[in-house]
Amino acid sequence: MINSIISKKAKIGENVSIGNYCKIYDDVIIEDGCVIGDYVILGHPSNSKNKELYIGKNSTIRSHSILYSGSYFEERLETGHHVLIRENTKAGKNLRVGSYTDIEGDVTIGDYVRFHSYVHIGKGSKIGDFVWIYSLCTLTNDPLPPSHIERPVIVEDGVVICVNSTILPGTHLRFGSFVASGSIVEGEIKPGVVVEGKNLIRGHVSKLINIETGIRHPWMNHFFDKYPEEEHRRIKELGLKIKESYSKNMG
Amino acid sequence: MKEILLDIINKIRKSKKLEPLTELNDDMSLRNDLGFDSLDLAELTVRVENEFGIDIFEDSIVNSVGEIFQKLSK
Question: A202 and B40 in contact by Cβ < 8 A?
Fold first, then answer.
């Protein structure tokens, strides 16, 4: 812990490892079992009325990441390197944020969400549970930039957004919808619907199949085992709900 | 049935800016000859199901046009 500056007002739990050249501000709470990498800043001052930064137990914050004050993360947050998370972000358990991803604040995030690297989550976004957002995706919020207008994106449970996609302001991705790589999406995308390119409907996620292996979406069918056993039932129920949305939305 | 399936396949090919086919052969591979990826197969499945009421991938993998005809003929 060379040259790290830790405020005496910060609350550090048991078995917490803090790297070198870190700065931990007042009103930071780090629960038991966390690992903080080198050059990490926790509790960076912000305009948030809530000055507290809470990091749940067994979290890992990797080097050069900055987490602003006013945010709350349940257990097992894990970041890559050079992650920026602005104020008033509230996340459920087991959030994973890839390297160089930034979350612009006033964002709510559910449980077991995965952001890969170089993802931009626009201010005010609402993300559900079990969402996957792959590299180089952007969730925007200003319909006529630059302006004071904010139309954040809503991403419901189980949504997958593939690489290099742009989700335009005000878009609402309903549960289980699937955005193909390189897409530009706006408006409401119904549950389980697959969209490609500029809002082109390609079918339903329950019909997405890899012909070489035979595996078939929704991904809950075959990927549930990547999650803790206590979550399997919840994931499978979500998968069933998505599958059942086919007849309503595509039939 | 053949004409309807050809029409469906050509709609998908058109969206991919591929030339329309004039006929279908049983041994045409969905991937290699029609150039279909997972998204195309998803759209094909939905369109065929809407038309014929059959999910061509429900019980097993379908690799060729001929295998689609077999499923639709049952």
Answer: yes
